[in-house]
Amino acid sequence: MAQHESVKEIIQYKKKRTKTTSIIEKIIPSLLFLAAFISVLTTVGIVFTLIFETVLFFREVSFIEFFSGTVLKPLSPVDPQFSILPLVMGTFMTTLIAMLVAIPIGLTTAVYLSEYASGTTRKVLKPLIEVLAGIPTIVYGFFAFTFVTPVLREIIPGLSATNALSPGIVMGIMIIPMVASLSEDAMNSVPNAMREGAKALGATQLEVTFRVVIPAAISGIIASFVLGISRAIGETMIVTIASGSSKNFTFDVTQSMQTMTAYIVEITSGDAAAGTTIYYSLYAVAMTLFVFTLLMNMLARYISSRFREVY
Amino acid sequence: MKYIDLSAVEKKMSKRLLMNKAVKYIFLSATLFGLVILAILVYRVAIDSIGWINLDFLTNKLSTAPERAGIKGAIVGTLWLMLIVGPVTMILGVGTAIYLEEYAKRGKLHSFIQTNISNLAGVPSIVFGILGLTIFVRLFGFGTSIIAGGLTMALLVLPIVVVSAQEAIRSVPSFLREASYGMGATKWQTVKNVVLPASLPGILTGVILALSRAIGETAPLVVIGIPALLIPIPSSIGDNFTALPMQIYYWTLDSVMVDEYANLAAATIVVLLIVLILLNSTAIIIRNKFQKRY
Predict the structure, then answer these.
(1) pTM of this prediction?
(2) Bridge partners, A81 (sequence order)
(3) Hey, is the C-beta of A240 within 8 angstroms of any chain B C-beta?
(4) What's the complex ipTM?
(5) Residues of A (125-164) whose Cβ lies below 8 Å from B
(6) Nearest alpha-carbon partner for B136 in B154, B119, B121
């Protein structure tokens, strides 16, 4: 404080500093709250944009037609029909195929890593498998379209160039690390005393795994499945590229099918003029997609919190 | 006198032990399945891109002729995108994390914001695309510019930054804060001078992971209508742009008509994957090197 001549000046200087400090102390929390509030605004933004345009859509298309019809012909010049069921079917089929790949392989991977693998093997394998999750979905789309589909066409004659099978399988591969890593976390949190107890009674490692560890970790494992399903429902690029754009209401996975996400991409890329029914259908489909995935995510959280075993 | 008939035990056990051993290898092969696919994917992309990746490819502009087409525009566009996503997510994400960890009272509002963030993390990226299209592109009139794409991406990856910053802040031991208060520091001084520096490695790791996610995301950009046409190289945040994943997307679709486009897509994938590997290893290095343990 060399620059201050008298004690009086020092006191005044100190007072001034305390004042600015206290102003900063008052402003900062509100600024930080504002930052936190942006995330709330984002959710509000999503919900409101979807609701507004969806309401406009249902003024033109009846609720019953949208959810019970089986024909989706948005671009038909005469009598365009809007039913979401073909898209729900496409989404359901690709998701089903994806989970048929991801659940068994993800779960056995988790079992191997948490129950069988030695410490070093685990340290090497786990990050390698997690690399799978870091690959952009567009790369998986390219892989499905240019490699997996041609290979499958050699095996399955009659498989069309775009189909639900190939993107479903590739999507499953993409989801493996998610199921594996969440299930492994759940299994790792099962205390060792339980394993040792079972082994002391003469159980083999396999029996310990299936009769003790998996039942004890079941809530976390099921939550990982549900999250995987949610991920598959919302996945976009793989299905856009590899599953085609035919709005088929069918169980035949060898044919081209369209998912909800792929429909959104098709309509947004195709310059649907604002105000047309096609334009509003985009939001109705997006709303359905949003509600589906939100319910899945909430279900996953409910399962893992409600049924968490306490040891 | 024998109490236990060992041969009977062995007979009974052998089946179970054999089963155990067999299943172990089944599990191992399932684990390796994902890795084999990964190897095939990388191998295929690498083979397809041989001869296509060179300096010309990186520095040429887009062209309808595959031999002359390059990804300079997409690289510049991706860099511009990072210039928006990085600072925006850092400020909003770290701000949110500080608010939740240091300032907010544990109550309804706190858990509401927390739940909201974890819900946002589960919203499909294409829905963020619709949000960007409606709010930034149409309502604010940004068009398909860098700023519209950047803000959309920033909102999409925000939860990643918030969660990792929260974890980093939570791991700062309370004795550091108490020492700071003991020296007469105010709350914000403590946060700014003690908590933030101590949690910086964790925060940076989160930001880098968010960036690498934003670089690879395609769906929101497709939905807001980012082109991959012959547009000029962007030079400001109001310009139209294209990005690496968009280039891959269009070339993959076009490969049905012109075979060489598949090679171009593969070459772009190699560039994208190299960028992602570099980013992710940086994140790992930061985490391992600078993470202090108290």
Answers:
(1) 0.90
(2) A73
(3) yes
(4) 0.90
(5) 125, 128-129, 131-132, 134-143, 145-147
(6) B154
